[in-house]
Amino acid sequence: MPPLDDPRLSPFTGWTRAHWADLADRMLLAARRHTSPGRARVSFPGRPGGYGPDVDALEGFARTFLAAGFRVTGENGEDPLNLMEWYADGIAAGTDPHSPERWVRLDEHDQAKVEAASLALVLHLTRPWLWDRLDPVVQEQVVDYLKPAIGSWYPPINWVWFQIVVEQFLKSVGGPYSAEDIEAGLALTDGFARQDGWYADGEERSYDHYAGWALQFYPLLWAEMAAGSPEAESRRPVYLRRLERYLQDAVHLVGADGSPLIQGRSLTYRFAAAVPFWTGARYGLDTPSPGLLRRAASGIARHFVSHGAPGDDGLLTLGWHGPWRPIAQSYSGPGSPYWASKGLFGLTLPADHPVWTAVEEPLPVERGDYGRVLPAPGWLVSGTRADGVVRVVNHGTDHSHPGSHLTDSPLYARLGYSTATSPLLAGPHAARPLDQSVTLLSEDGEPSHRTGFDTLRLERLATGTVVGGSRWRAHWVKPDEDAPDHGSGRSGEVRPGPWLEVLSVLRGAWEVRLVRVQPDPSGDGAASQGTARLRVGGWPLPADGPHEDSPHEDSRASQVSNGKTCSGVWDAAGLDAGGVTSADDASPLAHWTLVPWRATRGPARTGVWYAAAIHLGASEPGEPPAVAWDGPRCLVTWPDGTSDAFDPAPLPS
């Protein structure tokens, strides 16, 4: 990287535009070492992805092409690395149906539909320096390669934007396109819009980084491509208002160390999480301010660079920081991580743009503690200045629908996510909920699942404490292991159990979690409800080694520390057993992960409230919140002296 940070311009990250440009150049030059002779295929080292080496090579080209296009666009065509000629050669070979390096076509494999959107996007941005200089024969080849998008089926999720972008580009260069496709796609994406500027990735409760790096990104790019048309001019203000409101939440989800929230699929795209902040800057938003937008984006990129991504060889691998293959979904191959190139979108903006010249401003978590309610994803958010950690307690996202009975995806259905912890993504506890969960344990110790829950409550109290609740039919699933892994839960043979009600009361580093078991009126779950123990799992803490029990451990507390951060669960009512489970190679953050938990020694009783105090924060947490009851009202006294009194209703029995 450039040898000197700039503490005057960037007092929080030190990063300037030169750091971003150097990151792009290192990635692009490293990719050249893995390019085919005709430059159409970029085949990175590693085991092929689930779609095979031909798709992997197309991904490698299209996704690094994003970085190249952004780099040249922001320099107004200046191209010292000869990027446009390099990629022009690859486009000529890749779109030539007779070339030995020809690309997988859109009508041969659906993944080509994804990569085609990146091709179209960059060809639009770099039109004076690439498209306009292509030989007419190559231009015809590109049109022929892209036109199978017309009338084709796309999954009704963020993929719809790939069709819209491709066909809008075809229209802009005088190629064939379908106005009906574009109109229908735009109408479908309108249905993704949710409260406060958020988007769901389709009909399901799927909220993750795609909300920013896809669903906020493509609408405004399309409006730029279609500028001047009545449809684009009417939609652009709507898209801008949604992005502006979404970014007010998004800046609260970045940790002081720059880590994005470790939640949702495709985490190997890493600093693609910076995309919505650059999108706000490119399309003229001043709320959040340019200095705050760059602080968030640069913090994210610096976080990964300082943790070894890219590696010393300049390559991005399947992983989070370093290589860690289990983070991948079944569609991920060695070229997939290069969607991180989208995070370089800020390089499309010239050096004199306000986002580069404004002084960095602190993130919300650097200004003070906060509690925030995000109704669309159903999240309670707590940021604490002392440790810079952002926590999310989840009562609204499971990548499914209310009433479904799937297994819990560790990426979506856990009760908590943070910028300092990762859910257990590998090993036995990935599919058997332990961390950040409330489960009933069957006679053989199998934990129940919560996917399909109902969100019942989301509110912020006058004291700043935030409260949320959900209710679900506990169920056990024998999953279909042959189904493709796209990050969501799995279907299978279901055994239903009792109902669980959970209320989370969140303040600072602490959550008080209230749990009540209710029998099923139909009696279907009677076989399990009389024998099931209740277990409450805490935050999964990355650690250097396994946990060893201490004879002096507090019998009320299950807690662990890694020297910097503490994770713990304290019994506040009825959870008289506890422990710490050590998970080996289960997360990308460390070789070991330690999960504290509390449970009932015997079968859980129905109709009574159990309570736990759950902590993630400074290594010396002190005394937990005190929980008491005054009739039906719960009284919580927090370590900072604040008191909250509330009725757990409306949680219907």
Notable characteristics:
seven-stranded antiparallel beta sheet, single chain, globular, five-stranded antiparallel beta sheet, 653 residues, 19 strands
Strand tally is: 19
**Anisotropy-based shape:** globular
Class inferred from helices and paired strands: alpha+beta
The number of helical elements comes to: 16
**Cα radius of gyration in angstroms:** 25 Å
Average pLDDT confidence is 95
Beta strand %: 15-25%
Largest sheet: 7 strands, antiparallel
User: N-to-C terminal Cα separation, in Å?
Assistant: 58 Å
Parts with pLDDT < 50 across at least 5 consecutive residues: none
Helix content class: 25-40%
Strand order of the largest sheet: 6-7-8-9-16-13-12
What's the multimeric state? single chain
Strand and helix map with partners:
Elements: H1 17-32, H2 53-74, H3 83-94, H4 111-125, H5 136-146, H6 160-172, H7 179-190, H8 210-213, H9 217-225, H10 230-250, H11 275-282, H12 290-306, H13 354-357, H14 364-367, E1 370-374, E2 379-384, E3 389-394, E4 416-418, H15 428-431, E5 438-441, E6 454-460, E7 466-479, E8 492-507, E9 510-518, H16 526-529, E10 533-537, E11 541-543, E12 557-561, E13 565-573, E14 577-584, E15 592-599, E16 609-618, E17 626-630, E18 633-637, E19 643-646
Antiparallel strand pairs: 1-2, 2-3, 3-4, 5-10, 6-7, 7-8, 8-9, 9-16, 10-15, 11-15, 12-13, 13-16, 14-15, 17-18, 18-19
